[in-house]
Amino acid sequence: MNKTNLMALGLLSLSATLTSSAVFAGGNDDPLLTKVMLDQFEKGVDPQDPTQFSAQAWLGYDLNKLWLKTEGEYSNSDKQDLEIQALYSTAIAPYWDVQFGIKTHIKPTPNRNWAVIGVQGLAPYFFDIDAALFIGEQSRTAMRLSAEYELLITQKLILTPEVEVNLFGKDDAELGIGSGLSDVSAGLRLRYEIVREFAPYIGVDWRQKLGNTADYARSEGEDTQETQFVIGFRAWF
Amino acid sequence: MKSQYMIKPMIQTTNSELNNSRRQFVFGASAMLALMSIPFPKNAIANVLSQSLSQLSGKVFDLSIDYKMVNFTGKSARATVVNQLLPAPLLRWKEGETVTLRVKNNLDHDSSIHWHGIILPTEMDGVPGFSFDGIKPGETFEYQFTVQQSGTYWYHSHSGYQEQTGLFGAIVIDPATPDPVIYDRDYVIMLSDWSDEAPENIYAKLKKQADYYNYRERTVMDFFSDVNKNGLANTWNARSLWNNARMSDRDISDVTGSTYTYLMNGNPPQQGWQGLFEQGEKVRLRFINSSAMTIFDVRIPGLKMSVVASDGQNIQPVSVDEFRIGVAETYDVVIEPEVDNAYCIFAQSIDRTGFTVGNLTSDASLHAPIPPMDPRPVLGHSDMGMDMSGMDHSKMDMGGGDMSGMDHSKMAMGGGDMSGMDHSKMAMDGGDMPSMDHSKMVMDGGEMSGMDHSKMAMGGGDMSGMDHSKMAMDAAKATVSGLGLAGFGSNNEIKHINTEFGPQVDMRADAPKSGLHDPGIGLRDHQQQFNRKVLTYGDIKGLHPTYDTRQPSREIQLHLTGNMNRYMWSVNGVKFMDAAPLEFEYGERLRITLVNDTMMTHPMHLHGMWSELETGDPDFIPRKHTVLVQPGSKISYLVTADAKGQWAYHCHLLFHMPGMFRKVVVK
């Protein structure tokens, strides 16, 4: 996987060289750009609730990009979650990119590494879709599907429903993950875009553990369902 | 013939003086909207003389390109200017003379000046990389050529995004022979769009979020009000095509009034440019759209405008109330204002997110009210090129139906709109169609080549009374397939070639309509709604007979393509960097048919040669340098390849240009 990423980086820098040397009458059509998106950065209103974030960033051109995706949460030093993905993304259709690379799940320990192949894009009716298949060591497999929609109340007040489901191929007792459908979460966030790049929001987030994963949680004396009200902000640049 | 020029340059104030005064009249974008229906602030105008264009004339011109801080919005920002002026000085040339233009580049980047619409040798055209290296920092380039034409033109940088930051100016060329246009006074009206944002940032934002500047998207409230009006099922159906296509019917302009301040002769609307006239004068207004990204709709409430020239070329006068001017186009109009009256020259952006104004008056203390902007336009299915193909006849159930009252008389099919029309699934069994009257269907030029009626099932139908006899299909003009006659446009089939398929293209117009008689998005109902006659390309006929009366020997069909969501633009799905040049044979007469496979209106500009727009009269084909191609539409023009060398051919929307660009080589 590392090799693939090196190749991708090589390709990007090669095309950067070609681009910059081209004679151009108007301007550079496809400049090397970066975008960093802090999609969620929020704190539950209950003091027990964790602080969570999810962010993505890309570097690249119109059709080929390097992506970083990360998400995590922090409740206390014992209860943390952090994962990072590094992906190469290439367009396969007007609204769809195929992405492949690696994911490392750093917290909770022990950490798990996965190879990733996924699709990301805009489905008809303007659903933002991110679906990925993960293949890990010891023939672990997992899938994640998330969908997000934007409802414009006004041009600046935007309601965002989203759902995410996770599936695993086999039990991972150390991490308390069971095979099959492990958890489903849904959120509803209402943001106000002060400017396009910065929008504070309020929202509600609901998560339900399912199947074997729920059994693991119950045996640890944890709740299988959480609902929290959040405040946070979204930003990009 | 009387020809008297009375350009009276108004008192020139320096820009820094203006800037100080401007600060008092700074409004936010929302305050600007509130200004819409109130008159000019009279005292403000009295205190601040609006800036008129300063003029240079003669045969030798020294121009220097510099950076300069300007203030149009209350914030200062860096502009690119010529001789410290924005717009650059108005250059006045005389037809037949040889002009020398020494252009010094004081920027720290390469620069260039392109003489837009001027017929000249390729190495004088001023496009870097095309027989010219650009002007390096600190260098002076000397342009020299003989002026072979007259009329209204303009010049601008062809390097980077310098045009967006102010590097543009007007050119007026006095004719060698008496001017066929009679007027007593003329003014150049230069329209432009200014942003305090650096153009590179605007472009990057569009690549990151294509609707960044669109604050007119459909909301939940719009949905409910539509449901209220039209019912849930109809609303859902109307939305589903757009939702499936992942496109917005509110997507009119990429860059809008949310960042742009629109200028007339370098004046923001709060200040307004002012021009004076005297009793009984005929005033010629030379409109130039020197915007980077903004198409304007222009009118002068209370005055008819006689359009006498387009893109510098005289045309047979057309009396209109309103016209659309694409980026880089020019229109000359003659008006006859009444003394003791003031008139507002009102130019609103195509998406109605802003406007710029001028006050034309016989008395400097008289000010015309500024009209409100027209309703914001919403794209229709036809703007997706789905006029006919989206018009689904297959489900038309006419079994046994009585079609006697079916009136096709208002179907306007000028320009060959029926090639994609498929009636094959129309089931008309048993129908009685006795008085179906096609007699008023106007099908000039034999446009029915692709129309397939062969599978129309009319079993048992009685069509005895169906009268096609008056269908005006001039046999002489009708061609079965292939090239249509010069002046009438293309008959060819619309073909989407392989390169148009892929992630870089999000839409293909399968049944593009003709762009000739359509005034365009946002103007289509103005005749009915406001009783305003709006200029269409179909109204334009050259004043002089067609120069080259040969038939085209071949046709090039070019598709204007893009992916709005990724903010990518291309021709035939191929961006400039990957494209082979278009090759013209020296001396050949050819037709270019442009098919717009996007939802944007693209002003296409061919350098070095005329674009002779086929508006339906082969004897008086008008010559243009820039042609607007409407969304989901096609339009054709003829080109005589009479200029050897390498030429640029591109969309004049600045942020489309890098991709939607071709090199043309005439050998």
Automatic annotation (TrEMBL), chain A:
GO annotation, cellular component aspect: cell outer membrane
Signal peptide: 1-25
InterPro entries cross-referenced by the UniProt entry: Cu-R_B_prcur (IPR007939), OMP/PagP_B-barrel (IPR011250)
Domain of life (superkingdom): Bacteria
Single Gene Ontology MF annotation: copper ion binding
Record keywords: Signal
BP GO terms, sorted: intracellular copper ion homeostasis
Protein name according to UniProt: Copper resistance protein B
Automatic annotation (TrEMBL), chain B:
One GO cellular component term noted in the UniProt record for this chain: periplasmic space
Keyword Oxidoreductase: yes
Superkingdom of the organism of origin: Bacteria
Keywords: Copper, Metal-binding, Oxidoreductase
Plastocyanin-like domain segment(s): 66-176, 186-348, 550-666
One Gene Ontology term of the molecular function aspect: copper ion binding
PROSITE patterns: MULTICOPPER_OXIDASE1
Keyword Oxidoreductase among record annotations: yes
A matching Pfam family: Cu-oxidase_2
NCBIfam families for the chain: copper_res_A (TIGR01480)
PANTHER family in the record: FI03373P-RELATED, MULTI-COPPER OXIDASE
Name assigned to this protein: Copper resistance system multicopper oxidase
Native organism: Shewanella polaris
